[in-house]
Amino acid sequence: MRTATVTRKTAETEIAVTLNLDRTGKAKLATGVPFLDHMLDQVARHGMIDLDVAAQGDLHIDAHHTVEDVGITIGQAVAKALGGKKGIRRFGHAYIPLDEALSRVVIDFSGRPGLEFHVPFTRGLIGEFDVDLVHEFFQGFVNHAQVTLHVDNLRGANAHHQAETAFKAFWRALRMAVEPDPRAGGAVPSTKGTL
């Protein structure tokens, strides 16, 4: 089983993440940021990844450090669980609709961090959640999972729907990319022989 546990402690946050890439999709989430918990719950339902996240952060300031550091720590855990990336599909993509909103996510476990994030949110807050933090989550993940990630909201009028389709598409694309490829014979999916 491809599993990992990672903890990250700074002067601003303390994060613990445990995940299993090969499970049925159960989530235990306590980040202190309810909307982030709602988005991470998409892991359980759409990524088929068991995920346990516990976070304490400087929420008396705002949610920025907590959301970013959760993204960082999940990225570290995914990278650790994949190890040398032998036998995975490497690439994943998904289109996810929710009512009027539609998002596309494409991911490559390339070993090179790169984020293209194009989500023109229709408002700045979803409840009390600052929509700028969606970008911060993905940037943290990309930098530490060492992936290339394209997140595009193709249409949407409701900011909650825009965010939710982006997260659902992300987890679905990630699921595709980390799945074992039965035709790969356990090889690293790169002409270089390493990722």
Notes on the structure:
The chain is α+β, with helices and mostly antiparallel strands. Helix content is 34%, strand content 31%. The protein contains four helices and ten strands, in the order βββαβαβββββαβα. It has helices at 34-47, 64-82, 132-145, 159-178; strands at residues 3-9, 13-20, 27-30, 50-57, 91-98, 101-108, 114-118, 125-126, 129-130, 148-155. Strands 1-2-4-3 form a four-stranded mixed sheet, with helices on one face. Helix 2 runs parallel beside helix 3 (132-145). It starts with a strand and ends in a 17-residue tail after the last helix.
Concise summary:
The protein has 195 residues and is of the alpha+beta class. The protein is 34% helix and 31% strand. It has a 4-stranded mixed sheet, covered by helices on one side.
Kindly report the average pLDDT value: 96
Indicate the percent of residues in helices.
Answer: 25-40%
Structural classification: alpha+beta
- Tally of helical segments: 4
Topology:
Blueprint: E1 3-9, E2 13-20, E3 27-30, H1 34-47, E4 50-57, H2 64-82, E5 91-98, E6 101-108, E7 114-118, E8 125-126, E9 129-130, H3 132-145, E10 148-155, H4 159-178
Parallel strand pairs: 3-4, 7-10
Antiparallel strand pairs: 1-2, 2-4, 5-6, 6-10, 8-9
Essential attributes:
4-stranded mixed sheet; 195 residues; alpha+beta
